[in-house]
Design a protein that fits this description.
globular, single chain, mainly beta, Lipocalin, eight-stranded antiparallel barrel, 8 strands
Amino acid sequence: MSALVKILILSIFSFITVPYANPMDENAILGVWVNQAGDGLIEISQQQGRYTGTIIGSTDGKDRQDRHNPNPTLRTRSLQHVIVLDDFNYLGDNKWGNGWVYDPNNGKTYHCKMTLLNNSTLKIRGYIGISLFGRTETWTKLEK
């Protein structure tokens, strides 16, 4: 077999297997994540086919309030148990979309998509209108 044929066969084989080299289960994002600032603990769960993220605490044990909420009556509530991610569905290829994210640091809610880079790194992209106009955070999975 000539070298050219071997290279062609290897190229075809690698092209076929690359998309499937490291597929992750659609539930791979389930668990507790630490936000990029390192102070928030968010548990991502699945409920009725959609993925939701709820603040379950802080890394320093402090109970923060939802001071920037656009609703003045909610500004004194604890952030504990506040849903900050919701309505996501699995799109395939380690991506979740069609959801929203609430940023308690400014009280605003954005369209959002998430990409799982590996078992312990989640990229969260919040945006207005189109993904081009937004901000990305990287969250780290809390190991048990």
